[in-house]
C-alpha cells in the first residue's frame, strides 16, 4: 500500500505539535516553585491586610513576590532554550499577573470593593490563566485548578465575608501550594529519568 506524501507531512506536523506540547508541559513544570511562592505571598498579604489593616499590604507583597520571581526565573531560564509554546504561556501569565497587580493595588488603596467581590475577581482571573495553560498543554490536572478557581469566583458573592475568605484560602492551598508542589515533583522525576538515560548511555 502506497503512503501518500501528504500523509507523511500530516504525521510530521502532528508529531511536531505533540513534541511542542510535551516541551511546554516540561517548561511549565519547572515553574512549580513560583506557584508555591505566590501562594505564600497571597497568604502573607491576606494576613497583613486582615490583622495589620494596611492598605499597602497587597501592593507591597505583590511587588516583593514579583521581584523574587524575576530574580529566580532569570537564573533558572538562563540556559534554557525558548519555545513558542513557552513564550505564549509566559505572555498569558504575565498579562494576568499585571492585571492582578493593578487590581489588587487599586482595590487596596481605595478600599471600596467588598471582600466577596475582591475574591471573585482574583479567582476568575487565576481560573482563566490556568484554563488557558491547561488547554494549550492538554493538562487535566491544571484544568481542575481552573475549575476550582472558577467555583470560588462563582460562590464568593453568595457567601458571607468569613465563608468567602475561607473558600479563598482553600483555593490558594489547593491550586497554588499543592499544585505547585505537584509540579516540582514532576520536574524532579523528569530530571531523574533524563539523568538515568544519560547514565545508561555512557555505561
Topology:
Elements: H1 5-29, H2 32-52, H3 57-76, H4 84-110, H5 115-137, H6 140-155, H7 161-202
Helix pairs in contact: 1-4, 2-3, 2-7, 3-4, 4-5, 5-6, 5-7, 6-7
Main beta sheet, described?
Answer: none
Uncertain segments are none
- How far apart, in Å, are the first and last alpha carbons? 41 Å
Number of strands: 0
Spatial shape? globular
- Average pLDDT level: 82
What is the SS-derived class? mainly alpha
Taken as a percent bin, the fraction of beta residues is under 5%
- Tell me roughly what share of residues is in helical segments: over 70%
Rg over alpha carbons:
20 Å
Q: What's the tally of helices?
A: 7
- Give the tally of structural domains: 1
Sequence of secondary-structure elements: HHHHHHH
Protein name: HdeD family acid-resistance protein
Transmembrane segments: 30-49, 55-73, 85-103, 115-132, 139-159, 165-185
Keywords: Membrane, Transmembrane, Transmembrane helix
Amino acid at each position: 500500500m502506497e503512503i501518500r506524501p501528504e500523509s507523511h507531512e500530516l504525521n510530521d506536523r502532528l508529531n511536531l505539535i505533540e513534541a511542542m506540547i510535551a516541551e511546554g508541559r516540561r517548561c511549565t513544570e519547572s515553574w512549580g516553585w513560583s506557584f508555591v511562592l505566590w501562594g505564600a505571598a497571597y497568604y502573607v498579604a491576606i494576613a497583613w491586610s486582615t490583622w495589620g489593616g494596611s492598605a499597602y499590604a497587597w501592593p507591597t507583597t505583590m511587588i516583593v513576590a514579583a521581584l523574587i520571581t524575576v530574580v529566580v526565573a532569570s537564573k533558572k531560564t538562563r540556559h534554557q532554550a525558548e519555545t513558542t509554546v513557552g513564550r505564549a504561556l509566559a505572555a498569558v501569565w504575565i498579562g494576568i499577573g499585571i492585571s492582578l497587580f493593578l487590581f489588587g493595588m487599586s482595590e487596596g488603596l481605595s478600599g471600596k470593593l467588598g471582600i466577596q467581590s475582591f475574591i471573585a475577581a482574583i479567582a476568575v482571573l487565576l481560573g482563566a490563566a490556568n484554563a488557558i495553560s491547561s488547554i494549550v498543554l492538554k493538562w487535566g490536572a491544571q484544568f481542575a485548578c481552573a475549575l476550582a478557581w472558577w467555583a470560588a469566583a462563582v460562590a464568593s458573592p453568595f457567601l458571607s465575608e468569613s465563608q468567602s475568605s475561607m473558600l479563598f484560602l482553600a483555593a490558594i492551598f489547593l491550586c497554588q501550594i499543592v499544585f505547585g508542589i505537584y509540579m516540582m515533583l514532576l520536574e524532579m522525576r523528569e530530571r531523574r529519568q533524563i539523568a538515568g538515560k544519560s547514565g545508561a548511555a555512557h555505561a
